[in-house]
Specification:
Length: 420
């Protein structure tokens, strides 16, 4: 197992390019299960989560090839294998998005229930509700969900849950409805850029979809979808992570190959915290100076993303004044707070609100990553802290950041990977 070792206290400076989006690539890869013929996916990042979904698709009869140039070429060869096994699904919950496309294309799907997650309760009731509304027979037994339907039928589906819309539930129902008989209306759909990207791919395969990017999707089912080529959108969370690292270390960084339009709520909070932000087209520059406290509330898109909450906590831990972070998507998603306190941060968590009293300085220590975004936040805190910080259990990080150590080193960070 590896760890990351950081000698902190150096402002980050320079330019960095973001990779393709993990959370866009995953449903796009699953959508290949709907296709007749081959699909070509460009820009899918080299991450363990992408590899895991590749293994899941292979276990479901698809041929998945990563070409030297980086493209993923996916073609279904055998539709008789329709069970996504526990051992794969438990390592990557996103595998659940194979359920809708498999059911729609094959009339049958069996997927392991994802099980627990450190960031909080993550039920799949909305996924099942949506597929049942399209006429699927659903059963949950022995740790698996099975779904059956000769042919799905279009329907009106309300997808709002206790925490608002669901990204992957919307993806599952959108993919299933694309091959259903008749018209489907998804109300309170998720409108994340990753859903818009999935809809673009489905339309290129021959689907009829209107309203992608809004809370109301209109899908007219078709009989057949053909393989297509697609380039996934840039990773907005990776981009914002670099901007937070620049601000927290009082540096200046330009992130290239991103889309500022996907980050409006995040850029707004940066400005509220005194970070100088300049966005033009595919580049965003952040310059940290006199950071000041601000309040952040996580919400479904276009609100502030929960996947940036931990990184902002690291930045606000060295801002002047007292900030609050209210977590409205995963109320318990504060595993990183206690680890940051080991570096000298002053954070008090009460229910789904964290109160962060800014301190002058952090000091290096050994900390433990608990999940993907928490590990990115601990790396940021380590870059700020004086002295040495060891971030352990970084396998979490490799799930969602392509070559983070290499990219941060290029920005002047004193950072390396070591065997733990
Ligand atoms: C996606 O997960 C992302 N993952 C998550 O990113 C992200 O945190 C999340 O959306 C929210 O933005 C991928 O895209 C692979 P949800 P998803 O269904 O779709 C509740 C990362 O760090 N809910 O939108 O699984 C749920 O418990 C990961 O890259 C139900 O109640 O999230 C949560 O409170 C972590 N019933 C809220 O909705 C359901 O059936 C939003 O979850 C489904 C969800």
């Amino acid at each position: 197992m590896q760890k990351i070792v950081i000698e902190g206290g150096k402002p980050l400076r320079g330019e960095v390019s973001v990779s393709g989006s993990k959370n866009a690539a995953l449903p796009v890869m699953a959508a290949c299960l709907l296709a007749e013929g081959e699909c070509r996916i460009s820009g899918a990042p080299r991450l363990t989560d992408i590899d895991t979904l590749g293994k899941v698709l292979t276990s479901l009869g698809a041929k998945v090839l990563r070409e030297d140039g980086g493209d993923l070429v996916i073609a279904v060869e055998d539709e008789s294998k329709s069970t996504a096994e526990y051992d794969l699904v438990r390592t990557m919950r996103g595998s659940i998005c194979a359920l809708g496309p498999m059911l729609a294309k094959r009339g049958y799907a069996k997927v392991s229930l994802p099980g627990g997650c450190v960031i909080g309760a993550r039920p799949i009731d909305l996924h099942l509700k949506g597929l049942q509304a399209l006429g699927a027979e659903i059963a949950c037994e022995h740790g698996y969900v099975t779904a059956k339907a000769k042919r799905l039928r279009g329907a009106r589906v309300y997808m709002g849950g206790s925490f608002g819309s669901s990204v992957l539930a919307t993806a599952n129902v959108l993919m299933a409805a694309s091959l259903a008989e008749g018209q489907t209306v998804i109300e309170h759909a998720a409108c994340e850029p990753e859903i818009e990207d999935l809809a673009r791919f489905l339309i290129d395969m021959g689907a009829s979809i209107e309203g992608a990017g809004s809370h109301r999707l209109l899908i007219r089912g078709v009989r057949r979808l053909d393989g297509a080529a697609h380039r996934v959108i840039p990773d907005r969370i990776e981009a914002a992570t670099f901007l937070a690292a620049a601000a927290a270390t009082r540096g200046k960084v330009t992130v290239r190959g991103t889309d500022a339009g996907h980050l409006a709520a995040v850029l707004d909070r940066f400005q509220e915290a005194g970070v100088k932000v300049a966005a033009n087209g595919k580049a965003i520059t952040a310059e940290g100076g006199d950071l000041c406290a601000t309040d952040v509330t996580t919400l479904p898109y276009p609100g502030f993303p929960t996947d940036m909450q931990a990184q902002f906590m690291a930045m606000l831990s060295v801002a002047r004044g007292t900030s609050t972070i209210t977590e409205k998507i995963y109320p318990e998603r504060f595993m990183h707070a206690a680890e940051m306190s080991r570096l000298g941060a002053k954070i008090n968590v009460r229910g789904n609100v964290a109160v962060i009293e800014g301190v002058e300085r952090l000091t290096g220590a050994t900390v433990m990553a608990s999940d993907l975004r928490a590990s990115a936040a601990l790396v940021i805190a380590g870059l700020v802290a004086e002295g040495r910080t060891d971030v352990r259990r970084i396998y979490h990080l490799d799930r969602g950041y392509e070559d983070l150590v290499g990219k941060l080193s290029a920005l002047g960070a004193n950072i390396r990977r070591e065997e733990d």
